[in-house]
Amino acid sequence: MQHHLAGEAGHIIINKSSQEKCTCGNYGCWQVSTSTKSLSLKQKHIQKLEII
Ligand SMILES: [Zn+2]
Asked: Which of 8, 19, 23, 36 has a CA that sits 20 to 30 A from residue 52's CA?
């Protein structure tokens, strides 16, 4: 058995209920969860800046 994907730091499953499918085929990988969060955070910052 090869475990290349399982050994990747970004493919640790931290959110099993996540709907975000990772490139490795799993759901809730650390990589996907963090990228989604950072995106929403950036959008909030942009909205705040526009209000100010
Ligand atoms: Zn993954």
From this structure: 36
Q: For residue range 39-48, what is the model confidence (pLDDT) as tens digits?
A: 666 667 767 7
Distance of CA 32 from the midpoint of ligand 1 (Å): 7
Q: What is the pLDDT of residues 5-51, one digit of tens each?
A: 555 678 889 888 888 888 899 998 888 877 766 666 666 776 777 76
**Dist. CA 38 → ligand 1 center (Å):** 17
CB-CB contact of 27 with 14 (8 Å): no
The model's pTM: 0.48
Q: Which of 43, 40, 41, 21 is nearest to 32 (CA)?
A: 21
- Residue 46 one-letter amino acid: I
